Structures are given as structure tokens and as C-alpha cells.
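We examine the record.

___
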Amino acid sequence: MREVEKSAASVEEAIEGALEELGVSEQEAQVEIVQEPQKGLLGFGTQEAIVRVRVRDEDVDAESLEDQAEVAEEFLLGLLDRMDLDADVDHNLVDSVMYVDILAGEDAEGMGLLIGRHGQTLDALQEVVRCAVQRQTQSRCRVMVDVEDYRKRRRSQLAERTRSVAARVRRTGKPERMEAMNPYERKIVHDAAGEVGGVETASEGEEPDRRVVIRKGR
């Protein structure tokens, strides 16, 4: 069984690096969080996240994924109630990704607040849900929070643009750098470029300016 251990400033960044090295998608891997990142006092004693990633021998446990989605749903309903936001919460499996969808009730403006500028508030909400799910299920959170299909639309647009850039890189031989993205979006770029063939990708830079570079394959 192929296995690699990686450390980085965040869990998602460490996973991304491990998946790149193994050359597999997250759906094809089993992830173990060895250590969560910790901030030291006055900058001293800071610890990076450490993950151990191995290639799966079998498919993702659908029942476990369903359990995580239900935990996330319950947590989000409670959170939205405390925020006095009227919204529906449901989960759906789309392209092997389990989404927990927040859909507007009577408060459409509140949905915009949940997404935030360039999805920043949604990313923060994802992190809160991740911690809640992992605490209750004692396993890595594999569900993705979405608001009004923002992530699905973004994923589709980003994948289409990546395939176009990758095709151009393959044709011209000139590497191109994508804009800075969060780990979730960088993973979309890695996967979409891999569909084109003849190119390779790598993440460069430090958060929050980390981005994917697409180069012609060797």
C-alpha cells in the first residue's frame, strides 16, 4: 500500500501535498490526521499539521459519508437558528462529493452574508463544520458545505477554465500560474488539469497566496 506523511500550516494544505505526491484524488485516498496545527504562545512552540495519506484499496464507505452529512446538517441547523437566518439544509452526493447544502428560505440576503467576499465566510463556515463533524464522528470530515450552490458553480467554472489553460500550456509549452486559491479550489485545478493530459501541476507559495502552476509534462 502506497503511503506518505506530510506536514504543513493547515490540514488541507498537508493533504494537498500528499495527494500531489501520490498522484491520486482524495476519493482514492485514506487520510489520517496525525496532528492538528497549533499556535504557540507569542509565536513560540507553533506546530504544523501532520497527515498520513495512503492509497485506498476500496471505495469510500458510503454509510460513513451519510452519517457525516447528517451530523453536519444538524450542526448547521442549530447554527442558523442561533443566527436567526431562515434557510433549509439538505445533503446530496454530486460527482463523488458529499455536499451539505444551505438553501435560502425567506432570507436571501443572509445567504450572501454566509458566502462572503470570494467565498471567505463560506470557507470559515466549512472549517467550523469540519471541527464539529470530526469531534462527533472521530474521523476526518469528508463533507463540503455549500450555500446556494456557490461551490458547485465555482467548481464547474474553475474546472472549465483550468482545462482551457492546460490545453494552451500543452500547445505552447509555456507554464502558466493560476490565481491564488484555497486548498479546496487548488484540488479542483489539479484534477481538471489531469484530465487534459500532457501537463503537470504543482502548488507554489505560502497561504493565502498559494497557487497552482501548470507546466507541460516531461
User: Anything to note?
Assistant: The two ends are 26 Å apart (CA to CA).
